[in-house]
């Protein structure tokens, strides 16, 4: 079975602090992993995908197959990073399995 | 710029009513999806369509049906709405062919069933 676990429902950090949103997955094959973000009153949108290996808005995420993790990191959080973040998995399909989401709040 | 639109932002219906949620995309995407978004539960897939008139059940299809008569339009139908179907409904679309294709989302329809 394919599963995505985001252990933190809520995460609160101060502006300028590092932030890490955790994501663990369960899939026996080779996964495609994504982070989607939903800012307040905006639609859900792709933040980054592991295959691109790029940094978006200062965020990076590394796929660790040994630990089956795809944690999202940013060295210096900004207030505009406050949003709902979802980790998602595509396991040999064009459908996505989403985690339950982590609400990030960056305090001034 | 991909645009996915949903017919209503807010909808209030009564228990037992038949409800139609409409989604339209303008980028000629083959794949379209309907999700429910609930606090603490994340996004759950209701139905997926990979072509006109083709559909596949997602994780929570009970109480829902779908219709895709044209490539750009994907409808979600609640045959007899119940209070436990009060939720935010998100439509999405994507190109077919690769497992890492981005899904583009609509703004959502917040449905309240009284």
Average pLDDT value of chain A?
Answer: 93
* Radius of gyration of chain A from CA coordinates: 13 Å
Whole-number average pLDDT of chain B?
Answer: 94
Strand portion of chain A: 35-45%
Portion of residues in helices of chain A?
Answer: under 10%
Please summarize the sheet with the most strands of chain A: 6 strands, mixed
* Contiguous uncertain segments of 5+ residues of chain B: none
Structural class of chain B: mainly beta
Q: Sketch the major β-sheet of chain B.
A: 7 strands, mixed
Shape of chain A: globular
Proportion of residues in β-strands of chain B: over 45%
Helix content of chain B: under 10%
**Topology, number of strands of chain B:** 11
Order of secondary-structure elements of chain B: EEEEEEEEEEE
Low-confidence stretches of chain A: none
Based on helices, strands and strand pairing, what is the structural class of chain A? mainly beta
* Overall geometric form of chain B: globular
- Ends apart, CA distance between termini of chain B: 37 Å
Give me the count of strands of chain A.
Answer: 11
Features:
heterodimer, A: 108 residues, mainly beta, 3-stranded antiparallel beta sheet, 0% helix, globular, B: 114 residues, 4-stranded antiparallel beta sheet, 11 strands
Notes on the structure:
- The complex is a heterodimer of chains A (108) and B (114).
- Chain A is mostly beta strands and 108 residues long.
- Chain A is 0% helix and 44% strand.
- Chain B is mainly beta and 114 residues long.
- Chain B is built from no helices and 11 strands.
- In chain B, a hairpin with a 2-residue loop joins strand 5 and strand 6.
- Chain A binds chain B through residues 6, 9, 32, 34, 36, 43-46, 49, 51, 86, 90, 92-101, and chain B through 4, 31, 33, 35, 40-45, 48, 50, 58, 90, 92, 94, 96, 98-108.
Topology:
The complex is a heterodimer of chains A (108) and B (114).
Chain A: E1 3-5, E2 10-14, E3 19-21, E4 24-26, E5 32-38, E6 45-49, E7 60-61, E8 72-74, E9 83-90, E10 97-98, E11 102-107
Parallel strand pairs in A: 2-11
Antiparallel strand pairs in A: 1-4, 3-8, 5-6, 5-9, 7-8, 9-10, 9-11
Chain B: E1 4-6, E2 10-13, E3 19-25, E4 31-38, E5 42-51, E6 54-57, E7 64-70, E8 73-78, E9 87-94, E10 104-105, E11 109-113
Parallel strand pairs in B: 2-11
Antiparallel strand pairs in B: 1-3, 3-8, 4-5, 4-9, 5-6, 7-8, 9-10, 9-11
